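Quick one, tokens below:
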């Protein structure tokens, strides 16, 4: 026979209301009382009826999170921080990946499983603002990233252009003048790649260094993409004394390729990345990069989403927030 809340209340010697308060993580409960209830729950094997609780409260205390690729180190680390931040606020997070496919992004907004969540954190890379607005439904959605900048949508992002400009300026201050940039295409202006390329170009212009399209090497934002991009530059005989990988995976792949080919880092070529993933500190040499405020992104996006859920953020137009950044100067580009 299933254990009920009444059974837990009798075993703990408390009221049914007290058991309910403990299950709902009510703040003002004496620690000793809370412990008695938790001990009774564990001893009896009580399992809360989340469906019934959500019907009563109108909330599931679950959030959805849709990222494009959980194999990417940045997204994996961001997901971990978002989940930790949500847990502190009393929420759990259901995570899925879209693979940057439009059908999957649309499905994330329309899937019946969304009824299990109170709101959604979403990183669309294919859908446009109008499509997101049309299909988001009635539950709150907060976008992460910069692919969509629609004024009707809540967005939390990083200062891509400013951070890239500061990082390029650091290389220039170290005497580097031929800085290859990996992972972008000339002419891009939107999204992470375009904004970071714009920052790179702004730093060159400020220093009076001409922009050379030959130094812009496209590549997938993975380690093998960075290695292939650098190999292509070397094989074409393009001279360079600095490398800016538009994310850390590109930079780490580039650094490996340089070392394999006998190019000394940073003596011959200084290398920088972007994102400050955990691996950046432990590479050899350690990677100079940008920490783009991942903790702040997690705090602000979770906070904004919960405020929307609770009705505390009443603005009809979208809230746009940018996290700060910090340069992490390490051995690859001191």
């Amino acid at each position: 026979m299933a254990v009920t809340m009444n059974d837990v209340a009798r075993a703990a010697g408390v009221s049914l209301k007290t058991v309910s308060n403990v299950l709902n993580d009510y703040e003002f409960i004496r620690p000793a009382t809370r412990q008695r209830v938790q001990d009774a729950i564990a001893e009896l094997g009580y399992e809360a009826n989340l469906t019934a609780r959500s019907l009563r409260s109108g909330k599931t205390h679950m959030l959805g999170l849709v990222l494009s690729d959980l194999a990417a180190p940045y997204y994996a680390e961001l997901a971990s921080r978002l989940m930790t931040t949500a847990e502190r606020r009393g929420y759990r997070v259901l995570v899925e990946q879209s693979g940057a496919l439009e059908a999957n992004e649309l499905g994330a907004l329309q899937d019946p499983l969304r009824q299990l969540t109170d709101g959604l954190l979403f990183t669309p890379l294919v859908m446009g603002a109008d499509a997101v607005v049309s299909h988001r439904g009635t539950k709150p959605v907060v976008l992460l990233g910069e692919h969509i900048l629609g004024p009707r949508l809540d967005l939390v992002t990083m200062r891509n252009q400013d951070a890239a400009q500061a990082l390029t300026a650091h290389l220039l201050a170290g005497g580097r003048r031929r800085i290859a940039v990996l992972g972008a295409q000339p002419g891009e202006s939107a999204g992470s790649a375009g904004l970071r390329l714009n920052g790179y170009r702004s730093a060159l212009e400020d220093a009076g260094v001409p922009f050379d399209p030959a130094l812009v090497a496209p590549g997938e934002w993975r380690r093998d993409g960075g290695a292939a991009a650098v190999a292509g530059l070397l094989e074409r005989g393009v001279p360079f004394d600095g490398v800016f990988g538009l994310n850390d995976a590109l930079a780490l792949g580039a650094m490996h390729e340089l070392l394999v080919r006998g190019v000394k880092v940073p003596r011959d070529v200084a290398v920088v990345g972007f994102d400050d993933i955990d691996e950046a500190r432990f590479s050899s040499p350690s990677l100079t990069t940008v920490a783009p405020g991942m903790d702040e992104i997690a705090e602000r996006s979770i906070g904004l989403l919960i405020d929307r859920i609770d009705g505390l953020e009443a603005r009809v137009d979208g809230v746009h927030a940018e996290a700060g950044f910090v340069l992490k100067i390490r051995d690859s580009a001191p």
